[in-house]
Amino acid sequence: MKTKKRNKQDLIIEATQGQFDTEGVCWTDRAFSHPERTIRVATSFSGIGAPEMALKRLGLKSKIVFACDIGERYLKYSYKQLAAFTQGLDAEKKKRFAEHLYEQNKAHIETLRAGQAKKGASVKPFTLEEVMHNLYKEVTDHKVVLELVKECLDMLTEGMTQAERETYIDRLYDQKGNNYIKDAFFANHTIDESSWHTDIRFMDATKYKGQVDLYVGGSPCQSYSRSGKRLGLEDTRGTLFYEFAKRIKECEPKVFIYENVKDMLSAGSGEMSGLEAALEVFSGLGYHLYWRVLNSKEYGIPQNRERVWVVGFKEEYTFRFPNHIPLTSSWREYLDKWDRVDLPYTRDLTGLESLRLMGFDDFTIPASLQALDEKQRDVMLCAFAGNSMVVECLMALFRQMDITQYGAAVEDTIRTYETGNRMDDSLLEQLSVRELSELIAKASSLLSRKLKGDMQEEIAQPAARITEKSQSETTGASISILEDKGQTTDAATECEEMKSETEPCGEDGFPFLEHLFSDTPATAPEVLKVRMLDPMDLSGKPAAELIKVGATKLSKSAHADSQWDRVYSLDGICPCLTKTGRVKILVTNGMGIA
Predict the structure, then answer these.
(1) How far is CA 478 from the centre of its chain?
(2) Nearest-5° angle of CA 171, CA 202, CA 145?
(3) How far is residue 471's CA from residue 494's CA, in Å, rounded to a whole number?
(4) Chain CA centroid to CA 70, Å
(5) What is the rounded distance in angstroms from the CA atom of residue 475 to the CA atom of residue 455?
């Protein structure tokens, strides 16, 4: 009897599926081996900084090496606008420009037109000829909007330096309006502007090589999610994990974590699933891989959120995923209070409630979002939450692998100076008094060496000129005069002054660290904060009174809720939060529940 031949992807999936740690110490009881170390973290996301929040909640020190968006804000333009980009291109490049637009937008446009055809509209197939005609002859379709894809942007930025390319791309995004994701990230985490990258496709992480302990990220889930069109690898968003993999190759983190929807495991007959493709790429980078589907309700958060998690280790490491723990909280404990006493009462889950259900119990809403009206702000916050990772899942992974064993010691902090990279205040402020003292001592020695090295040539030059001038003058002259830049100076005094400048410390200590000890408080803008609230008080209510929660899906044919993930209990679990799906809650006396 012939057996079906297993392909390479099947073997990768089987070999890298990690096991749960059912026999070892529970992750909740694990202690960190080096809690004094600083975790140098990089992140690629469309959410709002879940790994940074997880490290903060664990009480660990962290420094953001770089952060970048993964293309949630698309550069979409009309045909007329796209044609304007090509004005400086020759005929051949214009043709290639149109071909790239056609190929990379084809799946989306054809899906859109198929939907229109179902409604009875008369539509024609999307063709390259149509794109060429609308770009370079006459715009006949004023409604179509296409994404300015990477291949086209590569043509437009050809010949630019890396810095010039990123500046060009950033300006295009800026023209699209506020980057609320960036605003939210900067409002909640300490990061330099130079460490932020607007689009993962146009950054180069090579300069961060050797500086990243942990790299966490994902790619847009809509290509695989049941709530999306499920175009998979045909969708440009579905292939953004290749960009994540490129950044891994460039910066070589000690550990990386990748997350996406469970449906990444799905594939049509004879097709490669998104997870298979991702694992094949990751394994080619030389990392030891483990993957597993984790559900947030099994790690302490009352939300039914299943996600694929891939963990990669640079050095060989036997890893088991953190085991499940009992759920002790109810999703209703994450809700705002309200004054309504009439039952039944129904409403959408708010943005702040969504953030709490993702583990963001300390979140600052930036000024740009505060300027929006309440409904717009709520939609944006819900999208942030739906796009993010569950903080509790990351906390479990960090404890299970003992993330501090990969952290940076004080010596690594000093090396930041030695390699010419800037060390920001956030890292220094996290050091203890003992660590700061050690840092200052080592920085003093380093500064002395650097200054002496830099000044050696400058000191040697006047000394040589003194000797030369002394030999040319009458023997016995006690003082030689050195003329330099029109000024007459005692050469011996000049040498002594230059030498004294190499001393790193005077009465004022270390000038380059003065900002650490400033007593001037920073002026913080007025902000809104997420805070955990007391649970709703249902005491004294009838025993049959329940809270019902479900994901709302609006029917296209009727203005009514047509689909619910039904949960009915006082200890209810919230359905999965997504970017676009709204969660509706209902407080009722139990009557009329099917």
Answers:
(1) 67
(2) 60
(3) 19
(4) 8
(5) 30
